[in-house]
Amino acid sequence: MSGHSKWATIKHKKGAADKARGKLFAKLARQIEVAARAGGGDPDMNPGLRSAVAKAKGAQMTNDAIDRAIKRGTGDAGGQSYEAITYEGYAPCGVALLIDVLTDNRNRTGAEIRNVFTKLGGSMAEPGSVSWQFSRRGVVLVDGKVPEDEVLLIALDNGADDCADDGGVWRLTCEPNQSLALAEILRDGGIEVISAESPMLSDNLVPVTTVEDARSVLRIIEALEDNDDVQDVHSNFDISDDILETATQ
């Protein structure tokens, strides 16, 4: 079971506070801006932008805010230049972490990331020492109230290669470039889609077997995600549903 998808599911169930939602929108706008600068402002011609816009819409970001971010990216409304960096490290219990960042100040962000690891019992790692454990996959989370055979009937004919119960939701996996198309097909079939992303996943999972250890792992992930420059945190923890539920209460 992927740490990323289980943690994403828990966060979805808990809901987002207004402050957290505002922070999320700022991060999504930055992703849209960077994608538009790299490949142009037309989502139909820019897969990266199309993915960023779909993610923003899934988080209920307004069309006006999305359009403003695209214009900043294409130079029609100012905007900044951001650098993409991936930091690597370990949380407590040896859980591997990849931290995707978009920053306008590499030195500031690097110091902030290192400070989180130092304060919360983790450690930074050299480039390549963690990333080899991960590969990018498409992940679509679907409402668990929908019967499995109904989900499978559509999903397996449209790019999904696996369907698993992930804490009360169906987790579909596919090639990373197929997640958005699969989500749209499911929605067209009347199935509620919770999210469609292309995270970095690992088959080399690290078991976390106590509530105390789970809280230590989640604490460092939450602190990293709280940084304005951090876009995604990918992990390889394996925590049972019961422990994860208790640790996040």
Keywords:
Arc Repressor Mutant, subunit A, 3 domains, 249 residues, four-stranded antiparallel β-sheet, globular, Alpha-Beta Plaits, alpha+beta
Please tell me about this protein's structure.
- The protein is an alpha+beta fold and 249 residues long.
- It has three domains: 3-74, Arc Repressor Mutant, subunit A (Orthogonal Bundle); 83-133 and 204-247, YebC, transcriptional regulation domain (Alpha-Beta Plaits, 2-Layer Sandwich); 138-198, YebC, transcriptional regulation domain (Alpha-Beta Plaits, 2-Layer Sandwich).
- The chain is 45% helix and 22% strand.
- The chain contains nine helices and twelve strands.
- The chain has helices at residues 3-14, 18-39, 47-58, 63-74, 106-119, 148-155, 179-188, 211-225, 241-247; strands at residues 83-90, 96-103, 123-125, 134-136, 138-143, 162-165, 169-174, 193-197, 200-202, 206-207, 230-235, 237-238.
- Helix 2 runs antiparallel to helix 3 (47-58).
- The longest helix has 22 residues, at 18-39.
- The mean pLDDT is 87.
